[in-house]
C-alpha cells in the first residue's frame, strides 16, 4: 500500500545493519541486499521486487490515494492483478483503520479499512496485515485487535507475529491453514533466539 513520500522518519530503523555479526546469520541474502540499498541510497520497494528474494510473489506497487474514487480503483486493480493468489500481504503505513481517520479523510491512505480486508478474505484469500503499535499496552492491543479480526472475519483463530515496533496479523483460510502453519516453522527455527511463542484457544501469538 505505497503512499507518496511524506519525509517523516518512521522508516529510519536501520541500526541493525550496523550489527552484521548479530543479524546476518538469520538471512544473509536479505541482510546484504538491505545493506546495499541503504549504502547506495536506493531505498525503494521496487528493489525487493527486482531481486526475486520473495519467490512466486506478485507486487501491486501503484500509489494509493486519499481520494475515495481513486482508492476504489486501486483496490479493483489490485484484485484483478492478484486473482488466483492464496495469500495477500497488506502493508499499510500505519495499520488497520481508526475512528479518527474516516475513509477519504486526509492521510486515510495510511490505513487499511475493514471493508477492504473483509472483501479480500471473503474472496478466498488468506491475509497477512502489518500493524503499528499505538499508545496502548501491547499485549492488550494485540488481543483486542485479534478478537476484532476473529469477529469481523468470522474465524476461530488469528496468529500474530510481534516485533519491538510492530505486529503482523495472519488470518488463514481453512484450506490454507495447514500449509501456513507448516511455513511458519522455518522462520521459527531460523530465528529461534529472537522470538517467543504461545497459543491460546482463540489466538496464537508469536514474538519476533
Helical stretch tally: 8
Order of helices and strands: HHHHEEEHEHEEHHEE
Q: In what order do the strands lie side by side in the largest sheet?
A: 1-4-6-5-8-7
Shape: globular
Q: Gyration radius, to the nearest Å?
A: 17 Å
Distance between the termini: 23 Å
Beta content comes to: 15-25%
| Tally of distinct domains | 2
**Overall pLDDT metric:** 86
Kindly state the number of beta strands. Answer: 8
Indicate the percent of residues in helices: 25-40%
Q: Structural class of the secondary structure composition?
A: alpha/beta
Low-confidence stretches: 196-201
Largest sheet: 6 strands, mixed
What does the model show?
There is one protein chain. This protein is of the alpha/beta class. The protein folds into two domains: 1-6 and 13-57, no CATH class; 61-207, no CATH class. 36% of the residues lie in helices and 16% in strands. It has eight helices and eight strands; from the N terminus they run ααααβββαβαββααββ. A hairpin with a 3-residue loop joins strand 5 and strand 6. The chain is globular, with a radius of gyration of 17 Å.
Amino acid at each position: 500500500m505505497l503512499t507518496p513520500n511524506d519525509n517523516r522518519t518512521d522508516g529510519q530503523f536501520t541500526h541493525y545493519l550496523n550489527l552484521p555479526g548479530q543479524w546476518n546469520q538469520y538471512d544473509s541474502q536479505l541482510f546484504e541486499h538491505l545493506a546495499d540499498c541503504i549504502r547506495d541510497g536506493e531505498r525503494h520497494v521496487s528493489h525487493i521486487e527486482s531481486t526475486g528474494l520473495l519467490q512466486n510473489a506478485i507486487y501491486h506497487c501503484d500509489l494509493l490515494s486519499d481520494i475515495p474514487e481513486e482508492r476504489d480503483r486501486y483496490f479493483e486493480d489490485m484484485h484483478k492483478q492478484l486473482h488466483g493468489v492464496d495469500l495477500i500481504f497488506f502493508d499499510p503505513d500505519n495499520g488497520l483503520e481508526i475512528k479518527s481517520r474516516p475513509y477519504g479523510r486526509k492521510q486515510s491512505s495510511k490505513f487499511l479499512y475493514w471493508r477492504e480486508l473483509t472483501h479480500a478474505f471473503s474472496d478466498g484469500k488468506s491475509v497477512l496485515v502489518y500493524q503499528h503499535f499505538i499508545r496502548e499496552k501491547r499485549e492488550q492491543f494485540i488481543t483486542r485487535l485479534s478478537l476484532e479480526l476473529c469477529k469481523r472475519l468470522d474465524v476461530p483463530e488469528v496468529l500474530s507475529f510481534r516485533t519491538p515496533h510492530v505486529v503482523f496479523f495472519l488470518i488463514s483460510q481453512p484450506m490454507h491453514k495447514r500449509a501456513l502453519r507448516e511455513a511458519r516453522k522455518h522462520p521459527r527455527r531460523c530465528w529461534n533466539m529472537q522470538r517467543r511463542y504461545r497459543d491460546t484457544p482463540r489466538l496464537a501469538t508469536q514474538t519476533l
